[in-house]
Amino acid sequence: MNENGVFPVLSLPDDRLKTAASLVRPGGVTVDVGTDHGYIPIWLLQQGICSFAVASDINKGPLDRARENSIKYGVADRLALYLCDGLDGVEPEKNGVTDVCICGMGGELIAAIVTRSAYVKEKKCSLILQPMSSGYELRKSLLEDGFLIREEVLCQAAGRVYSCIRAEYAAGEKVVYTEGELLAGREMDRQDPLYPAWMERHKKALTKQIRGREAGGLDTAYEKALLAQLERMV
User: Fold this and answer.
1) How far apart are CA 56 and CA 84, in angstroms?
2) For the chain, how far is it from start to end, CA to CA, in angstroms?
């Protein structure tokens, strides 16, 4: 709070966090898993998108920073903080969690956190997931576990393109993705200016993998078929 009794307004530091925050539904209660500085829930509270939020982290240091920031930005009375692993221990029923935000982790870790939580299925929470890597594994796990990917939004931070996934549990609804769609995503705007760079990143990685396997005398039929799928998606 400044000398005039006004709290500063938080600005999210990069487009990754801005994009993730933009996918949160207004009027609910968001839990930010692996919150680090607590930026997303603090921003949501300041903007009036959420009236209450939850932040969790497995490490004490980041949670202490989130606590300090919640006081600095005047939302400490509306932010519950939990030192715990993933969604384990955040008391989602007590806090009425509706939206789950998990950003800045590997896709396999995000998938493990989601899979462990029965609550996100029972309450059909909206999941906002931003994998730093292993997007294939995350999409595959979500679909196999009964979730539907409603949309994906591309964003750019530090010169690299990322995807933010919004998904929710839909018992009885099954969607089949091609291998290319599992790798690069399907529910996104292909007119997005970032889309060519996003696809080029995956194509380059596959091309490098093909060359490496060929140099080692290994079969590359799968990788070449996958590369052809990406070419068609472009």
Assistant:
1) 6
2) 50
Please tell me the total number of residues recorded for the chain in this structure.
234
Structure tokens at 102: 């998990």
Round to whole Å and give the CA distance between 149 and 123: 16
For residue 26, the SS3 value is coil
| Interacting residues of 184 by C-beta distance below 8 A, sequence separation 6+ | 135, 198, 199, 202, 230, 233
Distance CA 151, CA 102 (A): 15
pLDDT digits (tens, 9 = 90+) for 124-167: 999 999 999 999 999 999 999 999 999 999 999 999 999 999 99
Question: CB–CB of 177/208 below 8 Å?
Answer: no
Residue 76: CB atoms within 10 A of its CB come to: 15
pLDDT of residue 186: 95
> How many CA atoms within 13 Å lie on the side-chain side of 150?
13
Residues 6 or more apart from 181 whose CB is under 8 A from it? 139, 229, 233
